[in-house]
Amino acid sequence: MSVDRRSVLRGAAAGAAGVGFATVGSMPTLAEATPASHGQHSPFPQHKPFPPLLDDPEGVLALPPGFKYRIVTKAGETKLKSGQPTPNAHDGTAVFTGGRHDAYRLIQNHEISGNSALGVPQLEGTVYDAGVGAAGGCTVISVDRTGKNLGEWVAISGTLTNCAGGHTPWGTWMTCEETENKANGTTRLKDHGYVFEVWGDGETAHPVPLKALGRFAHEALAIDEDREHIYLSEDASGPNGTFYRWSAPKGYRLSSRSWKDLQDKDFGTLEALAILGDDGKPIPDVAYLTSAQLLRPFRVAWVKVPDRDGTTTSVRKQFTDGQITRGKKFEGVYGTKHGVYVVNSYAQSGTTDVPADGVPHDGMVWFYNYANKTIQLVTYFPESAAADKGADAKYQDYNFDGPDNVTVTPWGSLILAEDGQAASHVLSAVPGGPTYAIARNQLNDSEFTGPAFSADGKVLFVNIQDPGITLAITGPWRDYLG
Fold first, then answer.
1. 212 DSSP β-pair partners
2. What is the pLDDT of residues 101-117, one digit of tens each?
3. What is the distance of C-alpha 300 from the center of its chain?
4. Cα angle: 95, vertex 363, 368; to 5 degrees
5. How far apart are CA 234 and CA 12, in angstroms?
6. Are the beta carbons of 152 and 78 closer than 8 angstroms?
7. Closest by alpha carbon to 275, among 380, 361, 369, 166?
8. According to a count of CB atoms within 10 Å of the terminal CB, is the N or C end of the chain lower?
9. For 260-277, what is each residue's pLDDT tens digit?
10. Closest residue by Cα to residue 303 from 321, 279, 323
11. Element (H, E) at 197
12. Rounded to the nearest 5 degrees, what angle is found at the Cα of 315, between the Cα atoms of 314 and 317?
């Protein structure tokens, strides 16, 4: 993530995939959260309110009664199979069904921007750019049904600022570099700002950039049900970034072999989002829309990117004002069979985050409907002046800001991870409905990253990015979400 109003903001999107190394049906397997749209009946999921959070005697994680956590990894303390310590800056994470010896496998990003003592070690066969040293990348964590760590290893190294990404229907992870840094001949031997596909078996490694998906400050992505489109978010400022759609050539369907084709920067088509107003023209920034438009479907258009590799001009700067719809901090992305969710974390008043005549906010969640080709605002957090100044809200478990990454539970509701000011929470949200705190960081003021539910609905994995801790939360999830 970019460095701006919060000291260092790092984001994540999580992918809780129900396909994996022992393949099962795609997630989510039960009722899906699909916002209502004109011409289509799509009921919202309902669930019981979570009870108040109880403070943790260990000072790590406040949880509702009946829930407990286990620490899976901790940067610098747990070890990789190669002997090096677990890297830090845990970020976007996907959970897959395991194999014969493990219940689940996590593929986890590490959002590290340069050579670091706790960077991802460069191991043979995993390296993209040897010049960056032990920097960003992905590790794989094998765990049992209780979240016990059975082993960790490197899946890709030599990348930068691996923020979030998205799972694929064939059981791999696509990791996103949130940077636009080009090669400089010394600390970077190659250009960065790409998406890479990552396998979790520890043996299959193809550390090659998927240039067809563009070179920009990638945040997260989702592949749609027909395997013909990929939706990607951009976390960038000056000007604000946007939301993109990659479309396959006619007759082509994405598969486990597509990484070979996606290396070609001209393969398929990359387009940027334009949300259309009543006059048929693009609304220049999402901050012109507020909770007054909650659940209202807006038509969209997709505008072709002229030079997706950003050879001389950053991708987002290739569009004139009013040609597309921008937004501060396009973050988490998660797809369902009906559409895709995408998050804007905030747009702070008194800054260039929001147009002078726009409306500041502390979080938006959108839903793009594949069939209707419309987008709807499904969750909205108004700006909280107290929270923006870093003060604790009097009722901190009701006051939310800075949703960053999003995942869909096996029961169709949403899980959001906060990257805001004051207390950081993991949230349960019903599209168009209420939002509840289901965890609070008691350890420090670090953001939560990478929430990912196991396909069986038994474990919610989530990270505290600093100092780098992965947690497995278990409890009566079905009682509240089912």
1. none
2. 999 999 999 999 999 99
3. 22
4. 65
5. 12
6. yes
7. 369
8. C
9. 999 999 999 999 999 999
10. 323
11. strand 195-198
12. 65
pLDDT value of position 205: 83
In 289-360 the beta strands, taken as DSSP E runs, fall at 298-304, 330-335, 339-344
CA–CA distances in Å: residue 185 to residues 115, 129, 188, 190, 325:
15, 11, 6, 8, 36
DSSP lists the bridge partners of residue 376 as 367
> Which stretches within 298-449 are classed as H helix?
385-388
Cα torsion 209, 214, 216, 218 to 10°: value is -70
Through-space distance between the first and last CA atoms of the chain, rounded to whole angstroms: 33
CA angle, 35 then 39 then 41, to 5°: 45
Sheet holding 414-418, edge to edge: 61-62, 435-441, 425-429, 414-418, 403-408
pTM of the model: 0.91
The encoded tokens of residue 8 equal 């260092």
Query: How much of the chain exceeds pLDDT 70, in percent?
Result: 89
Measured from the Cβ of residue 114, the count of other Cβ atoms closer than 10 Å reads 15
Shortest CA distance to 155 belongs to which of 117, 105, 189, 191?
105
Tokens at 215, concatenated: 């070179």
CA distance 19 to 438: 26
Kindly state the helix (H) or strand (E) to which residue 479 belongs, with its residue range.
helix 477-481
Whole-angstrom distance, CA of residue 343 vs CA of residue 341: 7
- Joined tokens for residue 98: 């395991």
- Residue 452 identity: A
**Residue 60 CB neighbour total at 10 angstroms:** 16
User: Comparing C-alpha atoms, which of 95, 139, 141, 91 is closest to residue 332?
Assistant: 91
Contact 85, 118 (CB under 8 A): yes
Asked whether 461 and 147 are in contact (CB, 8 A), the reply is: yes
> Peptide bond before 297: cis, by omega within 30 degrees of 0?
no
Measured CA to CA, the distance from residue 312 to residue 75 in angstroms comes to: 38
Q: What are phi and psi of 385, to 5 degrees?
A: -60, -40
